[in-house]
Amino acid sequence: MTDESLPLEGVRVLDLSRVLSGPYATMTLADLGADVVKVERPGLGDDTRRFGPPFVEGVSTYFLSINRGKRSVALDLKDPADRDRARRLALAADVVVENFRPGVADRLGLGAEALLAERPALVYCSITGFGRRDPRPGYDLMVQGMGGIPSITGEAGGPPWKCGASVADLVAGLHAVQGILAALFRRSRTGRGGVVDVPMLDGQQSLLTYHASAWLNAGRAPGRIGNRHPSIHPFCTYRASDGFLNVCVGNDALFTAFSEALGHPEWAADPRFARNPDRVAHREALDALVEPVLAAEPVAAWRARLDAAGVPCGPMATVPESLESAPVVTHPHPEGGPPVRTVALPWQLDDLPRAAPRRAPRVGEHTAEVLAEWLGEGG
Q1: Which residues contact 42 (CB under 8 A, 6 or more apart)?
Q2: Of 33, 188, 177, which Cα lies nearest the Cα of 121?
Q3: Low-confidence ranges of the chain (pLDDT < 70)
Q4: What's the N-to-C CA distance of the chain in angstroms?
Q5: Would you call 54 exposed, middle or buried from its count of C-beta atoms within 10 A (0-12, 13-18, 19+)?
């Protein structure tokens, strides 16, 4: 399969972002074939180059996780000459991605309005905490908290808990990719670029879906109920003899199969449990019957039995356990260390590769190369 088959082959992306949300988005664009040029501070580079431990041969594993497929150009945006180079690179690009605090890009002469005035076909993506016009900084922890999801995460009566992964940043990166692809599709029809405005908070609120609808339409505010589902039961986590088992009984037929697999077909005939609304209303009574049965045998035994009965279930895996089945790709280490393994693009188009072939760059590694290709500098 040749590079010409990749969806974004020939698309130039200038990556002015740093840390997580923007770099995650631009790595995805690189995986799809775009030529992504990452602008970094001379010497220091992206902040995440110093996030650690862990480091491997002096390189942060955090940085390696979100920067494959890119070329690095070192520019000091406080220097007028380098700032002008950044502006000209932006005008030579198809897409610009930035996650500065609102107002910073404008002060640097790299704001959307100034660049689009010179190049109307440019797609300009801005990732912020609360929108391009809101000056507040946005960080994952504070945005997760403001997004409402921690208020419904954790055990009943306990404190709210944020997600262990940086979902406010990562969801913003995913939405940035969606917005950029939509803008590129529109440009292919109209020739017009535009501004993709990605507030992190909006992304978190969008994930509320049925919880938001319950409040907006029925005045019902959700609360913390641990690993239970507010509207389906049993759709939760049970303790087995050696660990935890997630059981997803999504309809009445599955509950019949679940009851039979646990050796208690009479549960499905009990009027308290016959239909899903009944099971939700009487979840404590049902759990009092289910819990001692599942606690008597190990996770593997229950998985085998429930799989055979067609009842969806699975373990609470650790990160190392989950990664045993993950689509992992391997690239050279930027400093000659051991090969770098990262998680690939989480979907595949036909049989195309699921990761860019280029490894993560060293700071400024491609400065001369990119300035020659994009701006004609050098000889």
Answers
A1: 74, 75, 76, 363, 364
A2: 188
A3: 1-4, 379
A4: 33
A5: exposed
Sort residue 35 into left (φ over 0), alpha (ψ -120 to 50) or beta. beta
What amino acid is encoded at 40 in this protein? E
Beta-carbon contacts of 160 under 8 Å, excluding residues fewer than 6 positions away, are: 145, 150, 151, 153, 154, 224
How is residue 187 written in tokens? 């440009």
What pLDDT, on a 0 to 100 scale, did the predictor assign at position 248? 98
Domains and CATH numbers, the chain: 3-207+322-375 (3.40.50.10540), 235-239+244-315 (3.30.1540.10)
Which residue is associated with the tokens 């990562």?
A: 170
Strand partners, 59: 56
Q: What is the pLDDT of residue 5?
A: 85
Place of tokens 């993506």: 125
Rounded to an integer, what distance in angstroms lies between the CA atom of residue 141 and that of residue 319? 21
Spatial CA neighbour of 69 closest among 138, 148, 110, 13: 13
Q: Helix 167-190 and helix 21-31: axis angle, to 10°?
A: 50
User: Letter for the amino acid at 239?
Assistant: R
Nearest to 95 by CA among 209, 199, 187: 187
CA distance 30 to 71: 10
Whether 229 is catalytic is yes
**294, 269 contact by CB (below 8 A):** no
pTM for the model: 0.92
Q: Which of 126, 70, 124 is CA-nearest to residue 95?
A: 124
Cβ 69 vs Cβ 31: under 8 Å: yes
Q: How far is CA 29 from each of CA 15, 42, 125, 137, rounded to the nearest angstrom?
A: 10, 24, 13, 25
pLDDT of residue 246: 98
Question: Which of 229, 264, 282, 333 is the catalytic position?
Answer: 229
Number of C-beta neighbours around residue 245 at 10 A? 24
Q: Are 327 and 354 in contact, with CB atoms under 8 Å apart?
A: yes
